[in-house]
């Protein structure tokens, strides 16, 4: 049937489309819950057959949501249907349920990597099926309000696109219109290196068997963002990040360069800090220090030079400190309680160096379709690189301080390990590596979950006010 161009959830039930969701993981549930809350009356969902009874119980009292036995039942009934499954399995799932697609139905995929989805849809969907895909660029615990929601009109009319827009309008998201190919480039540029940095930080801390904020080593301001977001990533499911890293060629390239940048910068730090003086004694080598400074300043100019007039992304350090897991001692307290010391910020130096090496302008995609994680980490890098004092203290610490050198070494090893894992293309190795680190932080997820969410809300609210 034809649907009104002004379609909304208040229309009579017989005038509403049947919305189908195959795959009720965290994102599938987020979509089902938001659509139910908006007032849509015919939402058909399913998951793996083994989860059918539990899913029925979970949604027994959720208005408008009907749990069906399998994907065939959803596909046969849905006017608009979304596959919310992992990119690794999209071809297998579409091959099984695609032939049951309702005549002239609109089909979408909520996958983080679109190349496998596009291939699966074109291969297994009926020729009459309309393809208008989507991807919410945020996690299931983040409010969709104001966040980018990518829409891909691959094989559909303007009327089909408007129907999808109307269905999702209640989310309050900001629509971003891309092709499949543009989507994968944008997500690589906004997520690959950020994820690699946070994954490497977590693995490094786990390998050191240390919660650094408890010892006062990484607290306050920028460190608050790094710690909170690292734990936030590990509190999610591993496959959320694996698909993007392994299946997106651009992401693989960037993760490899991030590991190279991390390694090369660390070597320069060691050369500058442990070179022999002319008399044979150990001491700082000015030539090596100059090489390190020149490389960092080159990266700063490439990435931030054309963007120095932009407003800062982050809130003030005083505001960020409210979300810290550790704290800096106040006047009168023992400095041993929780002492902040400058460090190399190797994760940030390597991220900007990586962007510079690959000639990526992160601000271009910030305006287009940035995730909250990317926005915050870019904000931290901007804060460091556009403050001459902070950047100088980081370089000085990288060369002269040895207290964090073992942590930096663990970080280099972790970054190279993640790069090799992605290069091998093994989802199983990725899962084992992720879950091993995850288990180290698991007891802290409840503590950091609410705090991290509030921090993201505060920063995003500040951004919305400015724009």
Automatic annotation (TrEMBL):
Keywords: Amino-acid biosynthesis, Aromatic amino acid biosynthesis, NADP, Oxidoreductase, Tyrosine biosynthesis. It catalyses: prephenate + NADP(+) = 3-(4-hydroxyphenyl)pyruvate + CO2 + NADPH. It comes from the Eukaryota. Its EC number is 1.3.1.13. Pfam families: NAD_binding_2. Residues 17-300 form the Prephenate/arogenate dehydrogenase domain. Pathway: Amino-acid biosynthesis; L-tyrosine biosynthesis; (4-hydroxyphenyl)pyruvate from prephenate (NADP(+) route): step 1/1. GO terms for molecular function: prephenate dehydrogenase (NADP+) activity. Belongs to the prephenate/arogenate dehydrogenase family. This is Prephenate dehydrogenase [NADP(+)]. It comes from Marasmiellus scandens. The gene is TYR1_2.
């Amino acid at each position: 049937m034809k649907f009104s161009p002004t379609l909304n959830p208040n229309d009579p039930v017989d005038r509403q489309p049947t919305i189908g969701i195959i795959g009720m993981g965290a994102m599938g549930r987020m979509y089902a819950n938001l659509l139910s809350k908006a007032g849509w009356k015919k939402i058909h969902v399913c998951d793996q057959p083994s989860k059918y009874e539990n899913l029925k119980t979970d949604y027994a009292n959720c208005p408008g949501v009907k749990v069906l036995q399998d994907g065939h039942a959803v596909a046969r009934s849905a006017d608009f249907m979304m596959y919310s499954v992992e990119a690794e399995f999209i071809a297998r799932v579409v091959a099984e349920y695609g032939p049951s697609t309702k005549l002239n139905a609109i089909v979408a995929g909520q996958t983080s990597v679109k190349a496998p989805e596009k291939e699966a849809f074109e291969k297994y969907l009926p020729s009459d099926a309309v393809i208008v895909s989507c991807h919410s660029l945020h996690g299931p615990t983040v409010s969709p309000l104001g966040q980018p929601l990518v829409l891909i009109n691959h094989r559909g009319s303007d009327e089909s696109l408007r129907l999808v827009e109307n269905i999702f309008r209640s989310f309050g998201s900001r629509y971003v219109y891309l092709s499949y190919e543009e989507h994968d480039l944008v997500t690589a540029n906004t997520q690959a290196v950020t994820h690699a940095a946070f994954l490497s930080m977590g693995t490094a801390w786990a390998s050191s068997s240390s919660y650094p904020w408890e010892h006062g080593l990484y607290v306050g301001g920028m460190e608050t963002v790094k710690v909170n977001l690292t734990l936030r990533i590990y509190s999610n499911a591993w496959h959320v990040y694996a698909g993007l890293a392994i299946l997106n060629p651009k992401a693989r390239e960037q993760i490899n360069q991030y590991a190279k940048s991390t390694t090369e910068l660390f070597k320069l730090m060691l050369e500058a800090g442990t070179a022999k003086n002319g008399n044979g004694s150990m001491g700082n080598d000015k030539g090596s220090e100059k090489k390190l400074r020149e490389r960092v300043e080159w990266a700063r100019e490439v990435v931030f030079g054309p963007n120095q007039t932009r407003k800062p992304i982050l809130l003030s350090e005083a505001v960020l400190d409210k979300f810290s897991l550790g704290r800096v001692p106040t006047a009168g307290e023992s400095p041993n309680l929780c002492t902040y010391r400058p460090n190399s910020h190797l994760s940030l130096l390597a991220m900007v160096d990586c962007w510079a090496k690959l000639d990526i302008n992160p601000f271009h995609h910030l305006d287009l379709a940035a995730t909250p994680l990317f926005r915050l980490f870019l904000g931290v890098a901007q804060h460091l690189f556009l403050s001459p004092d902070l950047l100088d203290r980081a370089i000085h610490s990288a060369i002269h301080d040895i207290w964090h050198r073992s942590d930096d070494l663990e970080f280099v090893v972790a970054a190279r390990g993640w790069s090799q894992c992605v290069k091998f293309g093994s989802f199983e190795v990725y899962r084992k590596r992720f879950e091993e680190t995850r288990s180290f932080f698991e007891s802290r997820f409840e503590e950091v979950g609410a705090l991290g969410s509030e921090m993201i809300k505060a920063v995003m609210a500040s951004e919305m006010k400015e724009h």
